[in-house]
Amino acid sequence: MISVIVPVYNGRELLSQAFASIEEQRHPDLEVIVVDDGSTDGLAECVGQFPPAARYLRQQNRGPAAARNLGIQAARGDMIAFLDADDRWTPGHLERLEQALLQKPDAGVAQGRMQQFVYSADGSEHRSGPYRMPHLGSCLYRRWVFERYGLLDESMRYGEDYDFMCRCWEWDIPKCLVADVSLLYRRHAGNMTRGVHSEAHVIVLKRRLDRIRAGVLDPSKPKSTIFQEYIGETREFDQWSP
Question: Which CATH number do you get for residue 49?
């Protein structure tokens, strides 16, 4: 089973496309968990309207990291995927990443590429070129990654996915890289992370230094992959202009 966790905060109007992309995966054994992060837009009333059927969890507004953590703790699957309410997956995304993990039993995460997209005034869609970035929605995780190494940092309101991928690199968790595009990331005025990636980068590096100073992390320990290759093209995100 793959558990799909969809954190939502006031995303009722965008949720239908996300659910459509989940259904298009045609995976035979999916568990979909919608985590409502204190929405005030009547989200609970619309969740049941979309296939596939989903479990609905609600918490007070505590941010996306806390919402995802609640979903992880409730998940029953051996593999865990994440999809934000305003994004979409490409067809076959879950199957491709699942097969990559099955072919490499020691790997804890598989990752595809991503593209940003926007809709113009006439309804046409425009996409960026494909690239790789530490975004949870482009990945599929084995459950043991969270059980052994902990959850997302709930003190971070943004950049928690970058921080978690950085920690995966520090733990030297093997990763499978899939060349196909997995995630379509919607650019719109309500993006929480828009324009804050430089700040998130600084926060993530500071947390890494804190772990080194606390003796939790030995920076001299060799890794099987260099940092930039493992993390991806972090600068590409804010450079695209539709």
Answer: 3.90.550.10
Q: What is the Cα–Cα distance from 219 to 240, expressed in whole angstroms?
A: 33
pLDDT in tens, 114-154: 999 998 888 899 999 999 999 999 999 999 999 999 999 99
Residue 86 Cα distances to 15, 56, 136, 185, 221, angstroms: 6, 17, 14, 8, 39
Q: Which residues contact 228 (CB under 8 A, 6 or more apart)?
A: none
Total domains present in the chain = 1
List the one residue out of 117, 118, 195 whose CA is nearest residue 158: 195
Distance CA 203, CA 47 (A): 34
Q: Are 137 and 83 in contact (CB under 8 A)?
A: yes
Parent domain of 171: 2-239
HSE-up (13 A, CA, CB side) for residue 159: 18
